[in-house]
Write a structure and sequence with these properties.
alpha+beta; 5-stranded antiparallel sheet; 12 helices; 12 strands
């Protein structure tokens, strides 16, 4: 049980990076060291062998060009064939007479084998027998015996290579030590670099663990730098902000819903208590009581349905797809005509294709149209729905009965209504109802808000709040302003890009 924390610490990103960096450095260092040593050792050995082969060729050339005897290779101060050989490289010379008799001992003395004696008796000058490795004391030599010809003897030349091997062995040891030093240095550098790189990740992980442990979404997330770690920190911070906002929205929704449900539930309880004495009530009072109960049940049902729609809209799992917003508006208008008996006119301009959730967009447009029908009780004119997309330009036209100023307002002529210019699609619903007071314009999209003039009308105050949620989820925003000549222009914009994930 106690080993698990240690294993968890060892398997951290910092340790993994350090070990990986050291392993890569070790592999590269060993590979380079082995290749370098092998190349250097091969070059030295080949060079020595080349020098020795050249000395043997010189001896062969001497004995073939001149009839030389053992005495010609005796040491001499005046110079001779022996001195020429010894000057050509680090070479020892030993002279053999007929039948391999030792005439002049080398330094050190070289062993005379049967093959060497046979070579001394050879009739052909330059005949050679070679021994690649001859051990003499602590040294190792290459030895070649070259016949003088006509049985006069032979010349033995030797080259020591053990000192070179000792040098190569020392070079190998130093290479190993250097590789070890490089690996240790790489490990230390990797640890320092990993510590530097993962410092912000460790702080970010600590913040995430604090959020998981405490459940507090207000924890400050350390965000520095513009690299991937900095982007991760900023994304995590934005996620916490959105989660905190979502939690706050849910809390307010529950509080507001509880407050709004209290009134219809109280009224229902009052009317239900009267049902116990229904037999004692006059017929007119009984009819009024039943009508009140039916009306309150409908209002309560509408309120619950809108609460469900609002909550579902905040975490919708409906897929995002490319749709024609003008087609959605036309479908909603057709339903509204059947329900209300009102004339609903739809006018579309430009490209109204968006990426969105069909159900949510239908709900938002339906709320706007139903809201217009509810407040325009005098049936003073048609309910007009204008859908304007990119490319509408000056060809959008003017709705029948609208003034030039209104056309500018609906077609995107002012700063408030030019959403389609940056790729957004705009939906506007125009009516000739009583309009909205200036003090109420900024609050009409709040949850459960109902203007004083509308509190006597049926409704929960959630319809326009749902419009705002849908518009925000689709990268747009709601808007409302008074219509010239009376009435209201109210609607929302939708970004042509993809809707936000729920």
């Amino acid at each position: 049980m106690r080993l698990r924390p240690r294993l968890r610490r060892v398997s951290s990103l910092r340790a993994t990076f350090t070990l990986s960096f050291a392993a890569v450095a070790a592999a590269v260092t060993v590979l380079v060291g082995v290749l370098s040593y092998s190349a250097a050792a091969r070059l030295v050995r080949v060079d020595q062998q080349t020098v020795f082969a050249g000395v043997v060729r010189d001896v062969q050339q001497q004995v073939r060009e001149r009839e030389l005897g053992p005495d010609d290779y005796a040491p001499s101060d005046r110079g001779g064939p022996r001195e020429e050989l010894m000057d050509s490289g680090r070479t020892d010379v030993q002279v053999l007479g007929p039948r391999g008799k030792l005439v002049d001992k080398g330094s050190p003395a070289l062993p005379v084998r049967a093959s060497d004696r046979g070579t001394a008796d050879e009739a052909l000058a330059g005949r050679t027998v070679q021994h690649d490795t001859v051990a003499l004391g602590d040294g190792r030599y290459r030895v070649a015996t070259v016949a003088l010809g006509h049985g006069r003897g032979a010349i033995q030349v030797a080259q020591e290579f053990s000192d070179t091997e000792d040098l190569l062995r020392e070079l190998q040891q130093r290479t190993v030590l250097l590789e070890a030093a490089v690996v240790v240095s790489a490990g230390l550098f990797g640890w320092w670099l990993a510590r530097r790189m993962t410092r912000r990740l460790v702080r970010l992980a600590g913040a995430a663990e604090d959020v998981a442990r405490t459940g507090r979404l207000s924890i400050q997330v350390p965000v520095t730098g513009r690299d991937e770690v900095g982007r991760l920190g900023r994304s995590f911070d934005r996620m916490l902000v959105r989660l905190a906002q979502s939690e706050e929205d849910q809390r307010r929704l529950v509080q507001d819903a509880g407050h709004e449900l209290r009134t219809p539930l109280t009224s229902l309880r009052t009317n239900i208590s009267l049902l116990r004495r229904i037999d004692e009530l006059p017929a007119s009072v009984r009819e009024e009581l039943v009508a009140d109960l039916a009306q309150e049940a409908r209002e309560l049902t509408d309120l619950v349905n809108e609460l469900v729609d609002l909550a579902a809209g905040q975490s919708s799992t409906e897929p995002v797809e490319r749709v024609e917003l003008a087609d959605i508006v036309e479908d909603v208008a057709a339903v509204a005509r059947r329900r209300t008996g009102r004339e609903v006119v739809v006018l579309a301009h430009g490209d109204t294709t968006v990426a969105g959730r069909v159900g949510a967009l239908q709900r938002a447009v339906s709320n706007l149209v139903e809201n217009a029908a509810k407040f325009d009780r005098g049936w003073t004119g048609a309910i007009e729905v204008v859908v304007t997309g990119p490319g509408a330009g000056a060809s959008g036209g003017v709705l029948p009965g609208l003034s030039g100023t209104e056309a500018e307002g609906t077609a995107g002529g002012d700063s408030e209504s030019d959403g389609h210019r940056d790729g957004a699609v705009r939906v506007e619903v125009l009516d000739r109802g009583p309009g909205i007071a200036d003090t109420d314009l900024i609050r009409v999209f709040d949850r459960f808000y109902r203007a004083p003039a509308a509190r006597s009308l049926p409704g929960s105050g959630l319809g326009l709040s749902i419009v705002r949620e849908v518009a925000t989820a689709h990268g747009g925003e709601p808007f409302a302003f008074r219509r010239e000549g009376g009435g209201t222009v109210i609607g929302f914009t939708v970004s042509a890009g993809a809707a936000e994930d729920g």
